[in-house]
Amino acid sequence: MGHEDTIVAIATSMTPAGIGIIRVSGDDAIDIISSIFVDKNKNEKSFTESYKAYHGYICDKEKNELIDEVICIVMRKPHSYTTEDVVEVQCHGGPLVLKKILQLIEGRGARIAEPGEFTKRAFLNGRIDLSMAESVSDIIMSKNDYALKVSFEQLRGNISEKLNHFRKEILESIAFIEACLDDPEHMSLDGYKEKLKNKVDNIINEIDKIIENYDNGRLIKEGVNTVIIGRPNVGKSSLLNLLLDEERAIVTDVAGTTRDIIKESINLRGITLNIIDTAGIREEKGIDKVEEIGIEKAKSEIKKADLIILMLDATTPLSKDDEALIKLCQSQNKKCIVLINKIDLGKNVIDKEKLKNLFNYDIIVIDFSTKTKEGLEKLEESIEKLFVFGDIDFNNEIFLSNERQFSSIKKAKKSLQNVLSAIESKVSEDFYTIDLNDAYISLSQVLGIEVTDDVIDEIFSKFCMGK
Ligand code: GDP
């Protein structure tokens, strides 16, 4: 397959740390490391045994210079991450040390690995399928406990198992139909339609569950896009700061996967909230905000949101602006929590009944204060209830990782529906096999079978270095 190069990469991060790991994979991995390694008595040592740790030094033998004290772990093929010969060099975790050892290994003939190339080799060499490979990256990027659980189950093969089961059923049907058509004297399709219909119905039902779960999976993994809206000075920045102080802020300035720039992510009871920046929300603290949130801007933010937190000021009656924002929320039919803020001032002139009536669906209204934190518990509880990941049976449910898998699954469903229509319209049996075959291919694609090299390259290019 033309990937016999021996590849090398730093597998740990390039910030000072206790330990750093350099990973080498390929036919020359063991020879290369043997050629730059000496044991503690400075004798050359070759690595013979798999799964053994060798203690010694990395040595630039041309300059007769010891570089670092290391432990090398040898994993001989096929029992390694890539199924090739792999050596992991554990050195001290300093960027300079790591770089020097990397260069030494490169100088001995290894090529610097592309992002994701180790995992790509594990896939191309057949140790894992594409859905498992994709889960590796998901595990690394997991932002909360639920996301980690979902991705880990996927690495263990829950998607693969389920889809392989569907594929097997479909393949059996194709084989049976074709055999009957080939040999009508001895085999008959009498009564098979009903059987096939049941089989296809069952698979479609299961696929529907997977499709329904997709959105939950996305919310779990990518986080709940949350927008805080309200008139100027209702307390939006104060709320954001309160949440950032109280909850575990994970990242700042993470570019959203798609269009929006997500400024802050926080973990709240295992749910990741990506707070979408709204106009003025990130103005410097203490500086009065003059920027109005234009309705147009709010509109586009609400569109992107999975959750809207609408803030009102308890001390002033509902204004036209408030009503306009409420209209916006409900026109989008989004999950919405209304916070009546500044409740600590002891004056609440908001008519809750009127407020609730302005919405044509149930909303949660909470008396709130960013000053005294009144209502914070309730806000957290409400968010938890709206996104009930806690009730999900992670061991048995399947969450697709991405749009690629999702669209393949939807295609498979479409083809299976075509099989059902064919059965109903009483066309000849050989028509069934065409759609069955299409469904088979779409399911295979989720697992990386029958996907083009371009797709594979694209997937692995998004991985981090050394993985
Ligand atoms: P934003 O324009 O919506 O981002 O509003 P800010 O968060 O900047 O708050 C505007 C003003 O209201 C600031 O002076 C805050 O200190 C004050 N404020 C915010 N939340 C509360 C609250 O719960 N109680 C009281 N008393 N004042 C608040």
Structure, explained:
- The chain has three domains: about 5-115, Gyrase A, domain 2 (2-Layer Sandwich), CATH 3.30.1360.120; about 130-215 and about 400-460, Four Helix Bundle (Hemerythrin (Met), subunit A) (Up-down Bundle), CATH 1.20.120.430; about 220-385, 3-Layer(aba) Sandwich (Rossmann fold), CATH 3.40.50.
- The chain contains 15 helices and 14 strands.
- A hairpin with a 6-residue loop joins strand 1 (about 5-10) and strand 2 (about 15-25).
- The protein has helices at about 30-35, 95-105, 115-125, 130-140, 145-155, 160-180, 190-220, 235-245, 295-305, 320-330, 350-360, 375-385, 405-425, 430-445, 455-460; strands at about 5-10, 15-25, 35-40, 50-60, 65-75, 85-95, 110, 225-230, 250-255, 260-270, 270-275, 305-315, 335-340, 365.
- By secondary structure, the protein is α/β, with parallel strands linked by helices.
- The structure holds guanosine-5'-diphosphate.
- Guanosine-5'-diphosphate binds near residues 238, 342 and 369.
Question: N-to-C terminal Cα separation, in Å?
Answer: 20 Å
Class by alpha and beta content = alpha/beta
Number of structural units classed as domains: 3
CATH architecture of the largest domain: 3-Layer(aba) Sandwich
CATH superfamily of the largest domain: P-loop containing nucleotide triphosphate hydrolases
Q: What does the overall shape look like?
A: flat
Which fold name is given in CATH as the topology of the largest domain?
A: Rossmann fold
Number of helices: 15
| Largest β sheet strand count, sense and barrel closure | 7 strands, mixed
The largest beta-sheet arranges its strands as 3-4-5-6-2-1-7
Ligand types: guanosine-5'-diphosphate
Q: Which residues form runs of ≥5 with pLDDT under 50? A: 251-262, 279-293
Roughly what is the average pLDDT, rounded to an integer?
87
Helix content: 40-55%
Radius of gyration, in Å, reads 29 Å
- What is the tally of beta strands? 14
H-E order: EEHEEEEHEHHHHHEHEEEHEHEHEHHHH
Q: For this structure, what is the CATH class of the largest domain?
A: Alpha Beta
Strand residue percentage: 15-25%
